[in-house]
Design a protein that fits this description.
five-stranded antiparallel β-sheet, 2 domains, OB fold (Dihydrolipoamide Acetyltransferase, E2P), elongated, 7 helices, alpha+beta, four-stranded mixed β-sheet, single chain
Length: 284
């Protein structure tokens, strides 16, 4: 985790880079306006060029707002992505046109109309707006999964070092303590999970995803999207001939092992029962 001082240094460094970029773009705009005026043989007014180059200044607050919109709440639905790309563009043009109109009305002998400036910004800078407001979204979509994966690994590491050994589960009008070693397999029963024991099954008010993160991964392994099995409760594994397997449990239940989970299952089983000579048969 970053310390406060290191985080402050990173923020300060990013702010300096952004400030230098904005200054360079303003200077570039001034030079561009001068060359354009010289080429057309028209007059060049530094004050007016400076005023219209304020276009670049509004990227700073709108970039900040866009980034925070993407990060909170933490989801990346298509609607949120479209809003994150389109709304800043419209807002930028409106603020820019309003600022030009207000400033020119206060300090110039003539005032630029909002509609006129809005249309100027749209026709002159639309490609710039699209590039500058789409790029942060692409950066976020690249950065966010990496950040989330890092957090998941950190959380998983902490939880694996201290996995739960008991569950407090409702059983009729009372609650009972269940040792996780008594669990044979767990089955998703949205929004809860069904706990299968040798002689009974109990509905537990947690999700399978939550229990996956809490149970010892060397003992419990996911065998398909909605099921997790206790490796110590497996009697045999039979191939279906199509990449999937059937797990025969001590209770007599037969659970499908999806081909997508076979690799993880092998690793978990070898860790939990390295002395076992369980063979993946080829029976279909």
């Amino acid at each position: 985790m970053l310390s406060i001082s290191s985080l402050a240094i990173k923020i300060e460094s990013a702010a300096r880079i952004l400030l230098v970029l904005i200054i360079c773009l303003v200077l570039f705009t001034l030079v561009q306006d001068y060359l354009h005026a010289s080429f057309r043989g028209s007059g060049y007014y530094l004050e007016e060029s400076l005023l219209f180059s304020s276009f670049w200044l509004f990227f700073i607050p709108l970039w900040w707002a866009q980034w925070n919109w993407l990060r909170f709440p933490k989801n990346s639905s298509k609607i949120r992505i479209l809003i994150a790309a389109g709304f800043p563009i419209l807002l930028h043009l409106l603020i820019y046109a309003g600022f030009i109109s207000l400033f020119s009305g206060l300090f110039f002998s003539y005032q630029f109309e909002v509609r006129q400036t809005f249309w100027f910004g749209l026709t002159e800078y639309l490609y710039v707006l699209l590039g500058f407001y789409v790029a942060p979204i692409l950066l976020y979509r690249w950065y966010s999964p990496t950040e989330n994966l890092t957090k998941e690994k950190q959380t998983s590491s902490v939880q694996q070092s201290n996995p739960i050994r008991q569950l407090l589960v409702p059983d009729g009008n009372r609650k009972v303590v269940i040792s996780v070693t008594d669990l044979i397999y767990l089955e998703a029963s949205s929004p809860y999970v069904m706990l299968h024991l040798e002689h009974k099954k109990l509905l537990h008010r947690e999700t399978l995803k939550s229990l996956v993160a809490q149970l010892d991964p060397a003992e419990f392994v996911r065998v398909h999207k909605s099921c997790m099995v206790n490796c110590n409760k497996i009697q045999a594994v039979r191939s279906r001939g199509n990449g999937d397997y059937d797990l025969v449990l001590v209770s007599g239940a037969v659970i499908r092992l999806s081909r997508n989970y076979v690799s993880n299952f092998r690793q978990a089983f070898q860790q939990s029962r390295p002395q076992d000579t369980l063979i993946f048969t080829q029976e279909s």
